[in-house]
Each structure stands twice: as C-alpha cells, then as structure tokens.
Design brief:
Blueprint (H helix, E strand, L loop, with lengths): L2 H11 L5 H11 L2 H6 L4 H4 L5 H7 L3 H16 L3 E4 L7 H4 L7 E5 L9 E5 L6 H17 L4 E4 L5 H11 L3 E5 L13 H9 L3 E4 L9 H13 L3 E4 L7 H11 L3 E4 L10 H8 L4 E2 L3 H8 L4 H14 L5 H10 L5 E2 H8 L3 H13 L3 E4 L3 E4 L1 H4 L1
Helix pairs in contact: 1-6, 8-9, 11-12
Length: about 375
C-alpha cells in the first residue's frame, strides 16, 4: 500500500484544514508522509501553524484508517489515486491554488494531453443547445481528434457533450460531485461506462460514501474550470452553475467562450450576458476558438499545401526553386532571381519563359517577374 497516497487521502480528510492551508503545509514539509511523520512537532517545525492544526494532527487514527480503507477500495476497483506530486495529476489544474490534494480517476486516459476543453451548460437545454453542442464537437474532432472533452455528467448540455464526444470517437471525462462507488444521475450510468471503456473516464476528488450534495457540485466546478485550456458555455439561464464555472475559469486565467442565442430565450440569457459584459468571447465556430487560443490550425495548413499542389502540380526541382524565390514578394528582377536561386542566367531565363507560358509567373517591364498573385494565395 502506497504510504504517500494513504497520507494524502488522510490529509484531505482532516476536519478544519482547507485545501489552501493543506497545500501550504505540503510545500513546507515536502510530502504528506512527512507531515504525518512529524505531526506532533508541527508547531515547532512550522511556527505559523495554528494550534487547531496541531490538535487535528494529534488525533488522526480515524482518518488514517479511513484512508487505508479507501486505498483498498480503489485498488480493488482499478481506480487511480492521483496526488499532487503524481505525473498523471492534471498539470493545468495543479496551477490552481485550490486544486484538490487527491483526485480519483476511473479510466485510463491522459489528463495532460495537448488540448483540453470544458463544455458546460444548462440542465434544461433546448434542441438548439443540443444541436450546437453536437455540431461543435463534430467540427472540433476534425481539427483536433486527440483532444479531451470535459464536462460534469449532469443532465442537459453536460451529457450531450459526453455523448457527442463518444459519437465522434473522442475521449471525454466526467467530473463527479461524489465518490466513484456510485453514479449520479443513475440514468447516465451506461454513458459513464462507455466513457471509461472508450478511452475517457470519470474523475472526482470525493471518496466513497460521499453523497452528491448541492455544495459538492459547486466545489467540483473548480475542477471542470481548472483542468482545461478553455471553458465553453453552450446554453445557460441568467443564473446557474455554468456561470459559476465560467467565473472560476476566468479567475484561473482560462479563456471563456459562449454561444449566443435569441434574446428572448430563457436558456440563452446567461450566454448573452457573458458576451455583453465581455466576460466571454462570442463563439460561432471552431475557427473562432482557434483564433483566440492562438492554436495551430492543421486544416488550414493542409488546405494550403493542397492548394499549392493543385496550383503547381508538375514543377520540377529548378522550377520550384524559382517559384519559391518569388512567392513572398511583389516582384523581383531577374538578376536577383539568379542570385537567390543559384541558377545560371540563361537557364533561369528559359525556365521563367516556360513558367510564363504555363500561367504560373508573369513577366513585368524591366526584366522583373512575379508569381501570379491569385495563384500564389
């Protein structure tokens, strides 16, 4: 049994110890094991520690026993316990000062892949919201098929995001507000199983026997916000959990996006307000997301190469060299072309004439040439 995992779980269960203070304690002592090894001397080792913390650490038998039982459960059910020092712990979330001390992951997925987006929204989504969610994920798959889609497994937009991801062969993670000994809502159990089996999974900070209380959903929203590069709100009423998650994402310096809706639609009011108040970027397509995020656009690059191949399908090596010397300039004198291409004048002149006859370059006055602009672009 991994002692660091046991003590990390025990630390997370200590009453009266906030996540923020627990992380300060971890930074000071180096590990949860060290904290418990020196628990009776904590005031001497960390002078600014409180007497309340010392009292809590003096009576830890119950939390350690509970932590050991939790480890037995996760080992039996092939669940991973990710502590803050684990390489598998989501590094984006780790940047957030209130990140959980321990995460429990059911599934074999990479939480640190190149691109992770959270898609959230109302539990009472409209047909418009479902269509937007499905279309966006279908398009996103075309650009970045290896990305991870995160949501909360709730009714409405959450489950639509998970199912759309599954339908498009993308990995998706559901962040839960309870332990992994149950699924809430129960009618999403089959989808949850598919998420685990198809390369995604279920993630929570809560141990077994934790009920899905209202406050837990508020707490889990910080994971949904912090684990991703961007948070996308599909539909939301004027008040709701999605807006809380969007605010958390903004506080974590994540980009927030929102799809607009009709001004009289109840479940578009939250998105429209986010956009109106400049708390979210208006989103209408994957291209909008790519532009704001500054991501490489693989389809645009592929299209550019394809166009170039179609425009100049049969250039030999020398012809390609001459065309490349002209591609990013308005025009160029033949003497400069000869210098840049390292092709003899007489040979370059002959090639340029042939390219002109084929409509690839154009001869200007004064022995200057250019690639025909509409073809080059």
């Amino acid at each position: 049994m991994n002692k660091e995992i046991v003590f990390s779980i025990a630390l997370s269960k200590l009453k009266g110890l906030s996540v923020l203070n627990a992380r300060i304690l971890l930074d000071a002592m180096g590990s949860a094991s060290e904290i418990f090894a020196h628990r009776k001397d904590i005031l001497q080792m960390i002078p600014h520690a409180s007497q309340r913390l010392q009292d809590a650490l003096n009576h830890v038998d119950d939390v350690i026993d509970a932590a050991k039982k939790e480890v037995e459960f996760i080992e039996k059910n092939r669940i991973k316990a990710l502590t803050l020092d684990s390489n598998e712990y989501p590094q984006r979330l780790k940047e957030c000062e209130d990140a959980p001390l321990v995460l429990y992951l059911c599934g074999d997925t990479d939480l640190n892949r190149q691109r992770v987006i959270s898609i959230i929204g109302t539990r009472k989504c409209s047909e418009y919201g479902r269509e937007v969610c499905h279309h966006f994920i279908s398009e996103f798959k075309r650009y970045y098929p290896d990305s991870l889609i995160v949501s909360g497994l709730a009714y409405g937009i959450d489950i639509c995001a998970h199912r759309s991801a599954l339908g498009n062969g993308m990995d998706t993670i559901g962040v839960l507000a309870h332990g992994l000994d149950t699924i809430y809502p129960s009618m999403h159990r089959a989808t949850a199983a598919d998420m685990v089996h198809q390369g995604g999974g279920l993630l929570t900070e809560y141990t077994t026997n934790t009920k899905p209380d209202k406050m837990n959903f508020v707490q889990r929203n910080r994971i949904v916000a912090g684990i991703s590069d961007a948070c996308i709100v599909v539909e939301s009423s004027a008040k709701g959990g999605s807006l809380i998650t969007a605010e958390l994402a903004s506080n974590y310096n994540r980009e927030v996006f929102a799809f607009p809706g009709r001004i009289y639609d109840e479940y578009s009011a939250g998105c429209n307000n986010l956009i109106k108040r400049h708390q979210a970027t208006l989103l209408t397509s994957v291209e909008d997301l790519i532009e704001v995020m500054g991501w490489h656009n693989p389809l645009a690059e592929s299209h550019k190469k394809s166009v170039q191949q179609e425009l100049f399908p049969e250039l030999n090596e020398e012809e390609a060299v001459l065309v490349n010397t002209l591609k990013n300039v308005d025009d160029k004198h033949i003497n400069q072309i000869v210098i840049d291409s390292n092709i003899p004048y007489s040979r370059a002149s002959m090639i340029l004439f042939d390219l002109e006859m084929r409509g690839i370059v154009k001869a200007l006055g004064g022995a200057r040439y250019k690639v025909i602009r509409n073809l080059a672009e």
